[in-house]
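Recall that a protein's primary structure is simply its ordered list of amino acids. Everything else, from secondary elements to tertiary packing, is in principle encoded there. The following example makes that idea concrete.
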Amino acid sequence: HDGGVTVMRPDGTDARFLPGTATESWSPGAVWLGLRVGRGMAAYDPSNEEMIPLFENGIFGAWSPDATNITYTPSRTGGLSEVWIQEIASGEYRILGQGTAVDWSSDGEWIAAVWSPPDLPGGASRWIHLLRTDQSGDVRDLGQLGGVSQGVFPADSRWVRFWAGSALYPKLRAVSVDGTEDLLLHASLEFGGLTSWSPTGDDIAFAATPGGFQLYITSPHRATRTLNAFGVSPRWSPDGAWLGYGPSPWHPSTPPNAVRVISTRSSQKLLVGETNGSFSWSPDSQLMAIAAPEGSSNGIYLVDFKTGEKRRVADGDRVLWSPPIRELTSP
């Protein structure tokens, strides 16, 4: 909320206010909470309240799967953007290659990055490529981007998915990391918000036209399913049974700005509630935390979307539920 971030238990207890910060993302295993501090970033350990400063001026990219490193791109005037890796414990950093990092594979071997090469063919603006983290210099170019969102790798790191081509008439593609397969999954006039892999990495949920941002589920080796729902930025529940999504601008919702969920198995739809656009799943997939408008401010509510019961737990404009806390090992 205004002035900083509050870290608390889901019931609102054990609240700690961190002034002058803004949320970035949780690391795997909820080891760290990434916080924006000015133009830089810090890693906050909720178990002991330790705050470790990281880069001072740049763009956060991704966490390593064992939560010991981050990628970032320094903010500079002119020149090509660069991907750097920084170790959290020591603060040491090293350059990896060109681009702006968007994801780190779960096996730890690859970082996906967006970049604009100086000799762009045909007026292309951005491309996506893979950088090997061992600094071997292995780079794999995948294609021209029509759009990109977080989470390009699935859970098993076998694929990279991205919207290819141009911003007009983009195409959803899945390219195998080993380069043996390049699949066209969907062609569209426009895509709506985030595109996300299922927790198992078998399916992809997205919103696209034609159809006024209809929701779809597709897979590298299964036919695309059209869901009876319209919205944007579908997000899987951790158990893969539900998709939460925001309203489509082409299909006004009642109440306005409502978040809904749809079953990925039966297509049952349920209303969660009106939000300012911020919502987050509980680790057990039973609840959703939403930031709901309250006149000139917002409140954080926990909602049981199956019963409709909700409970206010805090003030706030954005909500980010931590992933399950688990022991991490290096890939």
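The chain has a mean pLDDT of 87. The first strand starts at residue 4 and ends at 7.
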